[in-house]
Design brief:
heterodimer, A: 324 residues, alpha/beta, eight-stranded mixed beta sheet, 10 helices, 23% strand, B: 339 residues, four-stranded antiparallel beta sheet, 12 helices, 12 strands, 22% strand, globular
Chain lengths: 324, 339
């Protein structure tokens, strides 16, 4: 197998919890805890989990928008985590991010042209003439015409703004894009347009994506491989078709069973989890899911399972569960 | 325009009858009709989904039912809202206030903004109960604890003294439900009640809501963009587009045999977990029209694969076809659908 475009190795991000006199660190919130995975060239890795599971922090730690606490990120042979600030800035052109709310991530006082020119100006790419041509080309790729060049973000609908956000991420011809809930704020009819756009970009430009979402159906559609996160850790990683057809981790099963299906009368057996996600400040001992797991046994409270393959052959299907 | 949404005369009188409801908002470019001639019925104890995408008028409709249209800039231009035979349009604010919380109750998407952050849950819940049920504070507190237990809050006698920020999103939404049902309303309006929640919490909260609704016989209007939630919870649904009702009927028919091209497109475009992945998701081309510059004919015509000259000139009215009412010149002609 050829070298993957992105390799994340035991990446951790802990946030200090401060309190008391002098606001000293009194503990650590392990938002991301020793997460490892790979993204091959031109593939999409989907990352799902519920709020607070650490999926957004993971996306940001990979780009060093949050400085990782430990672990390594290797993008196309380059150790991102070892770069000094100057080299990091230069490397940023290869890795971009698209956020959930395009309204908050686009400057309200800049026209579309200004917004899209900026990354190229910062990285000193091309000439003023060629930059402008590039902007028109990018707008065309995301399905917008040159008439939008001099308009401001408030003049656009949510779907159009997200297209502009995607165009901005593409200006530097990145190899890797983190899409953090990139379609979650959009209405269904527009969401499907933007999802198709992302798939097309991937096919035509060969970009690799880390697609972060709470929406399991969206992730299935867009991803080659999917990772499920719970309390800062990956609990299951598998090819998309395997994960949805044959989920092995009890948390993945519960998550899939909870998704409402737009087919009246087709009542699936819903696995209703007891209680709530424990506080990441005081994660449970052993398996982080054992406090809510319908299949937990006494040893689950003691032994923390690592990600292990469940079967041989094909792309590996990894599960962190003692009873897989 | 006449409407006969109720095909079935043997059923009892509707709890809520909305007819030709029109709500406009004044803007610097003239009045915009956010809700335009909307009509539907709700039977006692029934759950009705009010669905559509952002800006379709579903939330404005529910605010109008509550008498909560901000005025100015909003105005209820015309129409009738009858609850249990009583006309609510034109009701003095004082009477409306008496109705809200007692006969009609509501749950909003973000409980953190609906709950008062500086008052404990106990204070907020007992206030409502004392006001509408005429119980003493002590009795009201006992009732509140009982309601919290019913919505599945562990150790309710302790948690009742919490402040909203001490609770998780799911817990807060349960508190909202407990509060909304504490006076046993006839009608519960729930506007995207589970949209801010995670799927596993959503599943828990939807289960609680269904259980309580059955227990108290409350009728519910569920305002949502999530057709999956509608399919699981509602018996009937009203689909809105650009301020108008485009289709209305039993969910079982609506979802399996949509008549309106918009409903059909919407159902196709939902990403759902599938056995076989589709190479491309079906989409509805274009975007929702600007309410300030509506086309003369059907509002969906610009995005509709079936639109012809007539659609661009003449706006279709809601007509009953079989079990489903649909506003379209070229609806799908499905065989009738049994309930």
């Amino acid at each position: 197998m050829s070298e993957p475009l992105l390799r994340v190795e035991r990446l951790s991000k802990y946030f200090p919890v401060r309190g008391g006199l002098f606001r000293r660190a009194r503990g650590w919130l392990k938002a991301v805890d020793e997460v490892s995975f790979e993204v091959p060239r031109g593939h999409t890795f989907g990352l799902v989990g519920e709020s607070g599971c650490g999926k957004s922090t993971l996306g940001r730690a990979i780009l060093r928008l949050h400085e990782p606490t430990a672990g390594r990120v290797v993008l196309d042979g380059m150790d991102i985590t070892a770069l000094d600030p100057k080299a990091l800035t230069a490397a940023r052109r290869h890795m971009q991010i698209v956020f959930q709310d395009p309204y908050a991530s686009l400057s309200p006082r800049r026209t579309v042209l200004q917004t899209l020119l900026e990354p190229m100006e910062v990285h000193r790419l091309g000439t003023p003439r060629s930059r402008r041509d590039k902007v028109v080309e990018l707008l065309d790729i995301v399905g917008l015409g040159p008439e939008v060049l001099h308009r401001y973000p408030h003049e656009f609908s949510g779907g159009q703004r997200q297209r502009i956000g995607i165009a901005r991420a593409l200006t530097l011809e990145p190899k890797f894009i983190v899409a953090d809930e990139a379609v979650s704020a959009l209405d269904v009819s527009v969401q499907s347009q933007v999802l198709n756009l992302i798939s097309r970009l991937q096919r035509e430009l060969g970009i690799s994506f880390l697609f972060i979402s709470h929406d399991l159906a969206v992730v299935q559609h867009i991803s080659h491989r999917v990772g499920v996160m719970y309390l800062g850790r990956l609990v299951e990683v598998a090819p998309a078709e395997d994960l949805y057809r044959d989920p092995r981790h009890p948390y993945t099963r519960a998550l899939l069973s909870a998704v409402p299906v737009p087919e009246p009368g087709r009542r699936r057996r819903r696995i209703v989890l007891q209680g709530e996600v424990p506080s990441p400040l005081h994660p449970p001992s052993g398996c982080p899911f054992h406090t809510r797991c319908p299949e937990a046994e006494p040893e689950c409270a003691r032994i923390r399972p690592g990600l292990e393959p469940v079967h041989d052959g094909g792309a590996p299907h990894l599960v962190a569960c003692l009873h897989r | 325009m006449t409407l006969s949404i109720q095909p079935d005369d043997t059923r009892s009188d509707p709890l809520l009858r909305v007819r030709d409801l029109t709500v406009a908002f004044d803007t610097d470019q003239g009045a915009v009709r956010a809700v335009d001639r909307v009509s539907f019925d709700l039977m006692p104890g029934e759950t009705l989904g009010l669905v559509g995408e952002s800006g379709c008028g579903k939330t404005v409709t529910s605010l109008a039912l509550l008498g909560l249209i901000p005025s100015p800039p909003g105005r209820l231009l015309s129409g009738s809202i009858r609850l249990d035979g009583r006309e609510l349009v034109g009701l003095p604010e004082r009477d409306y206030r008496h109705l809200r919380g007692k006969a009609i109750s509501m749950i909003f998407q973000e409980p953190m903004t609906a709950l008062n952050p500086v008052l404990s849950i106990a204070t907020q819940m007992t206030d409502v109960i004392v006001r509408h049920q005429g119980l003493s504070r002590r009795q009201a507190r006992a009732r509140a604890v009982e309601m919290l237990a019913l919505v599945g809050i562990p150790s309710p006698e302790k948690r009742i003294d919490d402040y909203p920020h001490q609770m998780s999103g799911g817990m807060r939404q349960r508190v909202m439900i407990a509060m909304a049902l504490s006076c046993e309303p006839k009608l519960l309006l729930a506007d995207e009640p589970t949209t801010a929640l995670d799927v596993t919490t959503q599943a828990q909260v939807l289960d609680e809501m269904a259980r309580l609704q059955e227990r108290f016989g409350t009728a519910m209007i569920l305002v949502t963009h999530d057709l999956g939630v509608v399919a699981e919870v509602c018996r009937r649904a009203v689909v809105m587009y650009a301020g108008r009702v485009v289709e209305e009927g039993p969910v079982s028919c609506l979802f399996s045999r949509p008549r309106h091209p918009y409903t059909e497109g919407l159902l196709a475009a939902i990403p759902r977990i599938r056995e076989e992945k589709l190479p491309e998701l079906p989409t509805i081309p274009g975007s929702v029209p600007d309410l300030r510059h509506l086309p003369p004919g059907c509002r969906f015509a610009d995005r509709c694969p079936r639109a012809d000259a007539r659609c661009r000139e003449q706006e279709p009215e809601l007509e009953l076809r079989g079990d489903i009412a649909v506003a379209c010149h070229h609806p799908n002609s499905h065989a009738e659908c049994s309930r």
